[in-house]
């Protein structure tokens, strides 16, 4: 049976044909939207239909006077004493509100699913276009291959002609050898056939001799069987004659025993009649005592009924108090759950704001890097995209805690008394008295048994209700524990990932600094100010120059050193991104004196590893672009989604050959970025590296 709402325990009872209850509330815009969005619900908003026949609820009277008969919308409402209370109507309205909320959330989930399907279709169309392009390229390569195959086919035909001539000579020699072998085989087969025919003839002669011997043995066996059958028939006739004699003797003995039994039965009947008369005489004397006892018993039963009614009222009162405590506890739990959800939403909002701020900072840095890259390598812009997935909530109605109990019908006790009207009807009156006493004793036993059954049924119903409440509380505790454990594990995993990423970033920065210290002559591109835009790079061995500028193999500037109070008062100048990269000269130029004066105003840019363009100072990228390594200019749409990933962190997109990397955050927030052309994502080092420097086990 399906679960029922908590207000089912307070519905009125019905004893006649199935009736109906209609509860209508003022339809709200939300209910109208939910009813129009859900075609499966054909009733009006605010109307509840409960049918006992549709959900399989047993009819009858429950433990607290509640009937679960059919409730339909086709009958008029009940306005008598059996109508619903205000509390029940409020519960029903609360239930309808939750149902409407659930339908609205379900509609939102369906719209999100449709949007996801549309995105998948767009991704499939892009993939089909890429496949068509690949097919065209394959067709061009196939044409070139066909020309090469045509030239190779001519040489192959000439070689095959020579091979066919050699094979024909070998075939003629093999045919001659085969003909000689067949002649020898035919001669051997003829000899074997003659030997086989002789062997078969001898076997047939032996089989005929064996058949004659078997026929003779069978004839002798049949003769012996006929003789044995005749002997058995004679013995059977003798046995049947003895059986008939024994049956006749047994019949005579049984007839004699039956006659003796009838005589004994008649004697016992006479004795019983005498005993019955004596018993009836004694029962007459006991009749008055029984009537007095019956009156006392009735009085005691009335007292017991009053006590049971008081106990039943007390039990109903306790049940009502338990229901009130349950509703109060449920309201407290809902309030706690609502507060917890509010706290979770606040935390999610704070985290989302932090992620948005971090994303804005990252976008600003990336824009700066893109402007540098546009100046340094025009035609290779990179873009970022973010995909957000909303949390979906679902409402499930709580199971009904009220359990109905089938009540047992009460049987009225009747006392059958009879008085002897006439002296000639004494025996009939005594028989009626005996029957009445026996019936009364049976009725008392049945009544006691019914009381015991009702008590046991009420005890079982109370135990089931308590067990259901305990199970529900236990499930709630287990769900809370599991949710807390899952949240703790998620937080620990996220903290571990953040710590690992920070350690890796610190290690890379430290390695870059060490490399710059080891090779101070290596210079990276530097944004210049408007005042020193004509500055020429030169090699200097002075200590001040080494402290101000550190070279880096990875084109990374170290953070600026802390300045004194006097140096902090100097106003900052705006950077000019339209810098000029000049070749290195081994000697100092004439402008070195003027540039040294502006060293104090030089402030290196803070650029991360992921925001830098590829190092184009090397002699080209080995390999074929588009075949050995991907060459994307923007982030394509793929089937990757952070909502399907078990943990937060960085994930390389295999559909883009690991050139696109997705960063999954809490709540399904997804940030994507693309590695420069010629590099792919290294999952072990959390950085973009040259494609030939990343092994297969480091991709994912």
UniProtKB/TrEMBL annotation:
This is Uncharacterized protein. GO terms for cellular component: extracellular region. Residues 1-45, 552-573 are annotated as: Disordered. Keywords: Coiled coil. It comes from Sarcoptes scabiei (Itch mite). GO terms for molecular function: chitin binding. PANTHER family: FI18007P1 (PTHR22933:SF31), FI18007P1-RELATED (PTHR22933). Pfam families: CBM_14 (PF01607). Residues 27-40 have a biased composition (Low complexity). It comes from the Eukaryota.
